[in-house]
Design goal:
This protein has 342 residues and is an alpha+beta fold.
């Protein structure tokens, strides 16, 4: 017989989902059969799998040691599993060491807000990549090595993704409850997200622009259309902008994302003839070549500058209710603003 006591990072999810994570080698049919036969119980009672786990709940497995080890992945087919675990842990430590010094804007028991530098991935796109996601777990392990025991059923993660060359605010869930709260806010669009950028052309008044996106996955590029067609009816986008200052042929803008689609700010501003400076994918090559020569700018100048949390009177969100957080500009961003006269 083996028992597991549910921690705060395991509470709040369905029993069956927890079992799939805890016993990754066990099939769906096997787990439900064990629940029916009371070989897996919840707090000493028969369970169906749909129960929501609470802090301190006890799950008991009436398995032989060999069966338990086999389905949790800890069997003696052993060495491979242990090897994979050690590789993962070294990956997190390496990411934390490699990206050491990332600014933390806010942190509590459930949520962390980081200021992502330019050139760093939010999440891995390839097996050998180093991203903010691995840095986050490495950081938490450096603070609490005992957290390693919970990684088989919960992985802290980045909840909003920025392009590699977009800097600024990234929202991270440290706990299951924190991840669920952030994901809910992002899905409901209740967190207001504001970006700062410089675009080509003069935009002299606040405006809201709308359109529809079509994504070319092969080229990793989107196109904006004024009316929907059969392929993009669900990809409606809305972008608000507020001019902060105008200088010569450039505008320093604050942009609010009402929706949040791939490359939305870059493609939407380009569609009205005001692309971001440095943006070779959507912008003007001749202008960008001049800026590259003058400032060594070879990527879009875009910074996720601030977020405002929704009002919330209870639960995790109460601590963050109506609070605003800002991410300082990267040094290169400040330098280019100054050189352009902003």
């Amino acid at each position: 017989m083996q028992s597991v006591i549910i921690s705060s990072n395991q509470a709040g999810q369905r029993l069956d989902k927890f079992l799939h994570k805890f016993m990754p080698e066990a099939g769906n049919g096997f787990l439900y059969k064990m629940l029916r036969k009371k070989n897996i119980t919840l707090n000493g009672k028969k369970a169906e799998g749909s129960e929501i786990l609470s802090l301190g709940d006890t799950i008991t497995f009436f398995f032989s040691e060999e069966t338990y080890q086999k389905f949790t992945g800890l069997s003696t087919e052993a060495g491979e599993k242990c090897s994979k675990e050690s590789i993962s842990l070294s990956e997190y430590k390496n990411a934390y060491d490699t990206l050491h010094g990332i600014e933390i804007i806010y942190e509590d028991d459930n949520i962390l807000i980081a200021n992502k530098p330019t050139g760093i991935l939010s999440q891995k796109s390839g097996r050998k990549d180093v991203s903010l996601n691995e840095w986050l777990i490495g950081y938490l392990l450096s603070r609490n090595p005992g957290f390693q025991a919970e990684l088989n059923t919960f992985r802290p993660s980045v909840c909003n993704r920025l392009d590699r060359n977009t800097s600024g605010i990234v929202l991270c869930g440290k706990s299951l409850a924190g991840s669920q709260y952030l994901s809910k806010c992002i899905k409901e669009r209740s967190i207001a997200k504001f970006y700062r950028t410089v675009c080509v052309g003069n935009l002299n008044q606040d405006a809201s622009i709308k359109g529809y996106l079509v994504k070319d996955t092969v080229r990793n590029k989107v196109s904006v259309f004024g009316t929907p067609d059969d392929f993009n009816k669900q990809d409606a986008i809305e972008t608000k902008y507020h001019p902060i200052a105008l200088k010569n042929k450039y505008t320093f803008l604050e942009v609010e994302l009402i929706t949040g689609k791939t490359h939305q700010i870059r493609a939407h501003l380009a569609s009205i003839g005001c692309p971001l400076i440095g943006d070779y994918k959507y912008g003007n090559r001749k202008t960008n070549d001049l800026l590259k020569e003058k400032f060594q700018l070879n990527y879009q100048l875009l910074h996720a500058y601030r977020v405002v949390f929704p009002e919330c009177r209870q639960g995790i969100g109460a601590t963050l209710s109506k609070k605003e957080f800002c991410a300082p500009y990267p040094q290169e961003f400040r330098k280019i603003l100054a050189e352009l006269g902003f």
